[in-house]
Amino acid sequence: MSSIEWKGIFPAITTKFTAADELDLPLFERNLQAQLAAGIDGIVLGGSLGEASTLTTAEKETLTKFTVEKVAGKIPVVLNIAEGSTKEAIKQANLAQEWGAQGLMLLPPMRYKTDEQETAIWFKTIAAATSLPIMVYNNPVDYKIEVTLDIFAQLQEFPNIQAVKESTRDVSNVTRLVNRFGDRFKILCGVDTLALEELMLGAHGWVGGLVAAFPAETVAVYRLAKAGRMKEALEIYRWFLPLLELDLHPKLVQYIKLAEAATGLGSEHVRAPRLTLTGAEREKVLHVIHTALAQRPALPDYLSL
């Protein structure tokens, strides 16, 4: 079984589309290269921000193979699995391995709200069916199913369940996980507006959203925090917060893609039923982005940390 060093910055990268609603691989690569240059540590494909629910299996295959080829072993490529049935989740996990992905981000079942036993068995069954390392995505706010500490206690026996994307919105959960399991599960913050707080509490990394448009600032916050340079990390983070709050909205895809367009790293094209922003809503989000760009901080040499 392969392993991933689940630490650092893992962008939940957006999927780029053309005006004709096809995958825009040249634009995707432009963003990917900016992420690599900024010093990211891994990448998550086809997450919520990647418009997973609208991608075909063929598109996931294209994206995964393309990304694996372009990163050329520099960082691990992780594919998100968000399915309604255990059978389909196992199929997607096996395809991910065939396509060259090095790890999986695994959500609880979609659509049906499983109880504690069903949730535990879901994760165990899929983990037993793949040798790929798994990061459990724990987001009861958006997906209505909590992966409790008691469930994690059961998941310990699976060596390929290695990490958790912590999105409960309760920063204390980082401490609860550490107190109960020590270093058994690597913890990556999944909520942009709580990232520095959770890194200070011992989280190992950050699965970011606004990193899609601001890769250098995101990596800088992480590296400065881990180097103990909290004053500098906090200064960047305070500037960053109005942007990070764009990650907490049902239209996070449109908001973050607008930010990517503003920084030259993407376009506003989204896949229906999502619609691109218009009118007052678009102006409001642009105001947040342009205000931040006008005050964008100079970064220290964080890559040498």
Provide tags for this entry:
TIM Barrel, eight-stranded parallel β-sheet, 12 helices, 11% strand
Low-confidence stretches: none
- Terminal residue distance: 30 Å
Strand order of the largest sheet: 1-8-7-6-5-4-3-2
* Subunit organisation of the chains: single chain
Global geometry = globular
Q: What is the radius of gyration computed over CA atoms, rounded to a whole number of angstroms?
A: 18 Å
Largest sheet: 8 strands, parallel
Helical percentage? 40-55%
Quickly give the structural class.
Answer: alpha/beta
Number of strands: 8
- Quote the CATH topology: TIM Barrel
Binding site for pyruvate: 207
Organism: Chitinophaga dinghuensis
Family: Belongs to the DapA family.
Active site: 137 (proton donor/acceptor), 165 (schiff-base intermediate with substrate)
TL;DR?
This protein has 305 residues and is of the alpha/beta class. Helices cover 45% and strands 11% of the residues.
Describe this structure in words.
It is a single chain. It contains 12 helices and 8 strands. With 305 residues, it is α/β, with parallel strands linked by helices. Helix 2 (57-71) links the parallel strand 2 and strand 3 (77-81). The model has no long low-confidence stretch (mean pLDDT 97).
